């Protein structure tokens, strides 16, 4: 598992009058050369602006999620989720907490996510997290991106939660993407990657308290998900290699196909997260929380 570290516009053109055209054609070689250099300088400046703009957009996500992909993820059929079900022998169970103060935001149970854009395990876990949370609300401003090109399971297709928004009448979702997927030589880094969104003091306190023994054998691992101080998900629930060489559209489409390898991993993980959220919301909404699969999982959560 990945470990935590200590920390334009183009120039306008107009139609020339005949006399202007004639005058231009009669200029000497030096004037023509100067004109060519000016035009070249303008083109170079324009290209640099374009390249710099594109480069900065890649730091926190390649491009917005296509509507068809988002629709497929947000609307995985209940039938497909029920068919896949959940088995603790394949997907590790959530860690149950007891006697802890409730984690809430604006009167709703809070789900805190801490990860990094470079992390292949975070890349894998974002898929079921989005599927699960979409049963309780709606995401906007998600972006496609890939995990680090040099880590295991390089370039795993995923999403960035950075600057995304999530709205729900049932739960609050607070995502923290600690670092980009771009390596840096700067001493100010997280696991060798550029810092993007450092946790707040209170978020860091939760991370330090719960991402440690006895809740995990690999302290400081990401992804880290705190479900209202009721349950923890530390590390990925399945191996990111399952998503190797797959496109976002292919993965999203396969979530409705219970026999596919990706659905077996992502849908099962999503079912587990849905059950944990249902415990926090007192089984609301009923159409999500009362399915046979979710009610069965809830009985195993020790809540």
Biggest β-sheet description: 6 strands, mixed
Quickly count the helices. Answer: 10
Low-confidence stretches: 1-60
Mean pLDDT: 85
DSSP strand content: 15-25%
Shape: globular
The helix/strand series, from N terminus to C terminus, equals EHHEHHEEEHEEEEEEEEHEEEHHHH
Notes on the structure:
The strands form five sheets. Strands 3, 4, 5, 10, 15 and 16 form a six-stranded mixed β-sheet that branches. This protein has a three-stranded antiparallel β-sheet with strand order 2-7-8. It has a three-stranded antiparallel β-sheet with strand order 11-13-12, with no helix packed on it. β12 (189-190) and β13 (193-195) form a beta hairpin. 39% of the residues are buried. The longest helix has 31 residues, at 29-59. α3 (67-74) packs parallel to α7 (248-254) and α4 (78-84) packs across α8 (261-280). It contains ten helices and 16 strands. The chain has 303 residues and is α+β, with helices and mostly antiparallel strands. The radius of gyration is 25 Å and the shape is globular. The chain has two domains: 24-58; 63-298, no CATH class.
